[in-house]
Design brief:
The complex is a heterodimer.
Chain A lengths: L2 H11 L6 H12 L4 E5 L5 H11 L4 E5 L6 H5 L1 E5 L4 E5 L8 E5 L6 H13 L1 E4 L2 E4 L5 E7 L11 H4 L4 E3 L6 H10 L15 H13 L4 H16 L3 E3 L3 H17 L7 H12 L4 E2 L7 H11 L3 H4 L7
Helix pairs in contact in A: 1-2, 1-3, 2-10, 8-10, 9-10, 10-11, 11-12
Chain B lengths: L1 H24 L13 H9 L29 E3 L11 H7 L3 E3 L4 H15 L2 H27 L1 H21 L16 H20 L4 H17 L5 H15 L6 H21 L3 H23 L2 E5 L5 E10 L10 E10 L7 H19 L3 H18 L6 H18 L20 H17 L6 H21 L2 H10 L5
Antiparallel strand pairs in B: 1-2, 3-4, 4-5
Helix pairs in contact in B: 1-9, 1-10, 5-6, 5-7, 6-7, 8-9, 9-10, 14-15, 14-16, 15-16
Classes of the chains: A alpha/beta, B mainly alpha.
C-alpha cells in the first residue's frame, strides 16, 4: 500500500481496531471520488470511523442524522429575506463546505431529502433558488443504513443506491479487537489522539493521479463482459448498470493506485467487483443464490483478461 | 465472373431437380415442370446480375461520372444534353447538384437495346445485319414450310403418318396408348420428313438470328406444350440438353466465346453424367408400362371380350370392356351387351431415394478417403507452425510483448501438466514444482501484468528473468512427465522441441 495511505490507515486504526479491510476500501473509494454506503447494525463505529477519517486526512466533516422530518433545505441551505440588507440572503446547509458528510440512517429520511442528498452527490454542487453553489473537493458521502429496526423507514430506491460507488459493511469486531477497543476507552477519548497526516490538496492530487491510472482495452473488455454476463445471468432481475461498469473501472483504478501501480490488472477488477456491484444487482424472487454467490459465480465463469484476450486455451 | 458461375450453378441445380422429378415420377404430365426451366434466365436476371453491368443499384452518379451519355446508362439520371426534353429533367436532383439532370425513363430492356445497337454499329455492323437477315430468311422459310405441310395433301398425310410413328415409338417406352391418326397404311413420309426437317432448321435459324430472347423462350414453351399435349416425352436427359441449349441461347449478349464454351462443356458434362450415372426414364416407365399391359391382356383373356382403353386422368387408366355373352346350354338367348368399367391406378416407379442416398454417401466417402490420410499432418503442421510463431515472439524487439509471450508459455506448460486452475487467480494455481518456485512465479506474474496492462518501458533483464522461469518450468515439468504426457507435450501441445 502507498505509504501516505498507510499512515492514514494507522491513524484510523487507533480508534477502530481490526477493521483494516473495510477502512482500506473506504480509503480506496475516497480516492476514486465515489460515495460509500455502509449497511450495518447500529453501534459498530460508523461515526467514529468517519470522524477519525476526517481528522486523519484533514477533511471538514459534517454529520447529519436523518429522520423523517429532516428537510432538503437542511442539507442544501435556503435563502431568507434579510431585513437590513433588503434582499434574499443564502444560508448554507449542512453539505456546504463539508468534505466528508456522514449521513446516518439515510433510509429514515423522507424521499425528497434523500433525493436532495443524492443529487448533491452526483453533481457535486447544490442549487438553491436558481443559484448554484459548488461543493468543496474532495467530497465524500458516507451514508449508513441500518439493516435492523427498519420500522418507518424509506428504503433507498434502486436507482439511488446505484449512485453509491461501493456498499460496505463494518460488522462486529472480533474478540481481540473488542478487547482493544474497551482498553482504549479507559482513558481519554482516543479520537483526540488521531493526528492529521494528510492535506486536503494532497488528497485532491492523489485523486487526480488515480484518474490517470491506465486501464487498457483488455481491462475495459473484461469489465464489459462481466457486466453483460450479470445482465444475462438466469437468477438476475436487474443486472449491473452502465454506471456500475464506470464505477467498477474507477474503483479498480483506485485499487491499482493503492497497490502502487499505475495500471489496472484483472485482479484489481476482481478485488473490487463484489463491493462495487453487490448493491446494483437485483435478484429474481425465489432465487436460490445470494447476490454475493452470484457475483462469485460471474468471476469464476467470465474469463479473466489475461486468459481471455491473449488467445489462451480454455481450461 | 463469379456471379456468372453462381447463375450457372443455380441453373444446374434446377436442371437436376427437374430431372429427378421427371425421372422419379416418369409421367408426361410432369413435363409441365419443364416449363419452369425457361424461367431460369429471368430468375438469373433478377437475382444474379452479372458483372455489375446492369446490376448496379440505381444510385446517383457522382458529378464527375455524368459528363456524357455513355457512362451513366446504369444510373437513373444523367447529365442534361442539349435537345433532351425539358419535362424529363429531374428538378429535385438538379437543384441539389446545381446542374441539370435528366431522368432516364427507358426501361432496362430498351437501354440494353440501345447499348447493343450502339455496340453493334461500332464493333460489328456486318454481324448485326447478317443476323437480322438470317432471322428474316428463317422466318420466311418456316412459314413457307408450314404452309406446304398444311396445304399439300400428301405432305399432310405424311406428317400424320410421321406422328403415328412417333406415337408408336412413344408407346414403346411409355405406358400410354395413343389414338392413332387416320392415315392409309404405306403412306410415304419422305416429303413430310423433309419439310419437318426444314421446319426444324428454320426454327433453329430464327432462334439464332433473333435479336431478343423471346423466340427462344417461345420455342421452348412450344416444345414443352407439345410434349405435354401429346405425351411424347423425351428421355429426361434429352430434355435437360434441349433446355440447356435454349437457356444458353437466352443468355444475355454479348457473350464471350469463353463463356459459351464453358457453358456448353458444363452442360455436356452434366447431361452425360445424368445419362450415365442414373438410369433414364425408360427403365422405370418401361416396367410400369409392362405391368399395365400385362394386366390389360389378362383382363381381355379372362373375359373373352375386347378391351378398349379410354384416355383418362394422369394417374389412372380406364378400361372399358364390351362383352357379348352367350348362355352355356346352347339355347338361344338374347345376346346382352355388358359394359365393364374398371379403373386401375397405374403403377408408377417409386422414387429411388435409397440409390441417391447411396450415391451421396459414396461421394462423401470418397472425399473423406482422399482427404483423411492428410488430415493429421495438416493439423500437426498447423499447430507446429503456430507454436513456432508464438516462440518467435520471445526475441521480439518489444520486451513487453516478449515477456507476455514467455509467461503465456509458462502458463501453457502448467496447464498442460495439470497444474493450472483455469480462470482462477494465479495465486490459486498449483505452483509447488520445486522449493522457491512459487515466489519466482509470482514475481514473473507481476512482470507479466506490467507487460500486459501498463504502458511502461521494460528492460532486457525482465525478458531474461521470464526466460529463466520458462526454462526452469520446462526442465522441471519435462523431467516429471511420463511418456504419455511427453508425447502430448511434444506433438499435441507442441511445447517441447
Amino acid at each position: 500500500m502507498r505509504p501516505e495511505m498507510e499512515k492514514v490507515l494507522a491513524e484510523i486504526e487507533k480508534v477502530l481496531a481490526g477493521k483494516r479491510d473495510v477502512i482500506t476500501k473506504i480509503l480506496t473509494a475516497l480516492l476514486a471520488d465515489g460515495h460509500v454506503l455502509l449497511d450495518d447494525v447500529p453501534g459498530v463505529g460508523k461515526t467514529t470511523l468517519a470522524v477519525a477519517l476526517s481528522r486523519a486526512s484533514g477533511l471538514a466533516c459534517r454529520r447529519v442524522q436523518f429522520t423523517p422530518d429532516v428537510l432538503p433545505s437542511d442539507l442544501v441551505g435556503f435563502s431568507m429575506y434579510d431585513r437590513q440588507g433588503g434582499g434574499l440572503v443564502y444560508h448554507p446547509g449542512a453539505l456546504n463546505g463539508a468534505n466528508l458528510v456522514l449521513g446516518d440512517e439515510i433510509n429514515r429520511a423522507a424521499s425528497k431529502t434523500q433525493s436532495a442528498l443524492l443529487e448533491a452527490m452526483e453533481e457535486r454542487q447544490v442549487t438553491v433558488d436558481g443559484e448554484t453553489y459548488p461543493l468543496p473537493r474532495p467530497f465524500l458521502v458516507i451514508a449508513t443504513q441500518n439493516s435492523v429496526g427498519a420500522v418507518g423507514t424509506q428504503f433507498l430506491p434502486y436507482a439511488q443506491v446505484d449512485r453509491f460507488l461501493v456498499r460496505l459493511s463494518l460488522g462486529y469486531p472480533d474478540y481481540a479487537a473488542q478487547m482493544e477497543m474497551l482498553k482504549n476507552r479507559q482513558g481519554a477519548n482516543p479520537l483526540d489522539r488521531v493526528r492529521c497526516v494528510l492535506g486536503r490538496e494532497e488528497l485532491a492530487g492523489m485523486q487526480e493521479e488515480v484518474r490517470q491510472v491506465l486501464s487498457r482495452d483488455v481491462i475495459l473488455d473484461y469489465i464489459t463482459r462481466l457486466t453483460l454476463a450479470s445482465r444475462e445471468h438466469g437468477a438476475v432481475e436487474v443486472g449491473i448498470s452502465p454506471r456500475g461498469a464506470l464505477f467498477l473501472d474507477r474503483m479498480a483504478k483506485a485499487h491499482a493506485w493503492m497497490d502502487g501501480r499505475d495500471y489496472v490488472t484483472g485482479q484489481d477488477v476482481q478485488a473490487v467487483f463484489a463491493d462495487v456491484c453487490a448493491h446494483r444487482v437485483l435478484l429474481k424472487e425465489h432465487a436460490e443464490k445470494t447476490v454475493e454467490a452470484m457475483l462469485e459465480d460471474l468471476l469464476k465463469t467470465v474469463e479473466n483478461p489475461d486468459r481471455h484476450s491473449r488467445g489462451m486455451r480454455k481450461p | 465472373m463469379r456471379k456468372r458461375a453462381a447463375g450457372l450453378a443455380v441453373w444446374i441445380a434446377l436442371a437436376f431437380l427437374l430431372y429427378f422429378f421427371e425421372n422419379n415420377t416418369g409421367t408426361r404430365i410432369v413435363l409441365a415442370g419443364s416449363l419452369l426451366l425457361p424461367l431460369v434466365p429471368a430468375l438469373r436476371r433478377g437475382l444474379l446480375e452479372e458483372d455489375g453491368e446492369r446490376g448496379k443499384p440505381r444510385s446517383l452518379p457522382r458529378p464527375e461520372e455524368v459528363p456524357g451519355r455513355r457512362e451513366e446508362e446504369s444510373g437513373g439520371v444523367r447529365a442534361y444534353l442539349p435537345g433532351d426534353p425539358v419535362n424529363r429533367i429531374h428538378w429535385k436532383l438538379s437543384a441539389k447538384r446545381d446542374e441539370l439532370l435528366i431522368r432516364e425513363r427507358e426501361r432496362e430492356e430498351s437501354a440494353e437495346k440501345d447499348e447493343k445497337k450502339a455496340a453493334g454499329e461500332e464493333d460489328a455492323p456486318a454481324a448485326g445485319r447478317s443476323r437480322k437477315r438470317l432471322f428474316r430468311a428463317a422466318l420466311l422459310i418456316f412459314l413457307a414450310a408450314l404452309l406446304l405441310l398444311g396445304l399439300l395433301p400428301s405432305a399432310r398425310r405424311g406428317g400424320m403418318a410421321l406422328l403415328n410413328r412417333l406415337f408408336e415409338a412413344s408407346e414403346a417406352v411409355n405406358a400410354y396408348a395413343y389414338v392413332r391418326l387416320d392415315v392409309p397404311a404405306g403412306q410415304p413420309v419422305t416429303l413430310a420428313a423433309a419439310l419437318a426437317a426444314v421446319l426444324g432448321l428454320s426454327l433453329l435459324g430464327m432462334v439464332l438470328g433473333a435479336e431478343s430472347r423471346w423466340p427462344a423462350l417461345v420455342l421452348m414453351a412450344g416444345i414443352v406444350l407439345f410434349q405435354v399435349y401429346f405425351g411424347l416425352s423425351l428421355p429426361a436427359g434429352g430434355n435437360v440438353v434441349l433446355f440447356a441449349l435454349f437457356v444458353l441461347r437466352t443468355l444475355r449478349r454479348p457473350r464471350s466465346r469463353k463463356t459459351i464454351l464453358t457453358a456448353m462443356a458444363g452442360i455436356g458434362i452434366l447431361s452425360l453424367a445424368v445419362l450415365l450415372i442414373w438410369p433414364g426414364t425408360d427403365a422405370a416407365t418401361e416396367a410400369a408400362s409392362e405391368a399395365v399391359r400385362d394386366r390389360l391382356s389378362r383382363l381381355t383373356q379372362s373375359a373373352g371380350g375386347t378391351a378398349r382403353e379410354l384416355p383418362a386422368g394422369e394417374k389412372e387408366v380406364r378400361h372399358v370392356l364390351s362383352l357379348s355373352l352367350t348362355a352355356g346350354d346352347g339355347e338361344a338367348r338374347p345376346e346382352g351387351e355388358y359394359r365393364l368399367e374398371t379403373v386401375e391406378e397405374q403403377q408408377i416407379a417409386r422414387p429411388h431415394w435409397v440409390s441417391y442416398l447411396r450415391i451421396a454417401l459414396l461421394l462423401l466417402g470418397t472425399v473423406a478417403l482422399v482427404t483423411l490420410p492428410f488430415l493429421p499432418f495438416l493439423l500437426l503442421n498447423r499447430r507446429r507452425r503456430k507454436a513456432l510463431e508464438a516462440r518467435k515472439a520471445f526475441e521480439s524487439e518489444d520486451v513487453r510483448e516478449a515477456v507476455t509471450a514467455i509467461f503465456q508459455h509458462v502458463i501453457a506448460w502448467l496447464e498442460a501438466t495439470g497444474h493450472g486452475r483455469g480462470n482462477a487467480l494465479y495465486a490459486a494455481w498449483d505452483t509447488g514444482l520445486s522449493p522457491g518456485y512459487p515466489e519466482r512465479f509470482a514475481a514473473c506474474e507481476k512482470l507479466f501484468e506490467e507487460a500486459a496492462y501498463s504502458s511502461h518501458e521494460m528492460r532486457e533483464e525482465h525478458r531474461r528473468q521470464a526466460l529463466a522461469l520458462l526454462n526452469e518450468t520446462e526442465q522441471t515439468l519435462w523431467r516429471q512427465a511420463g511418456w504419455k504426457t511427453r508425447l502430448r507435450l511434444r506433438y499435441g501441445e507442441c511445447l517441447w522441441e
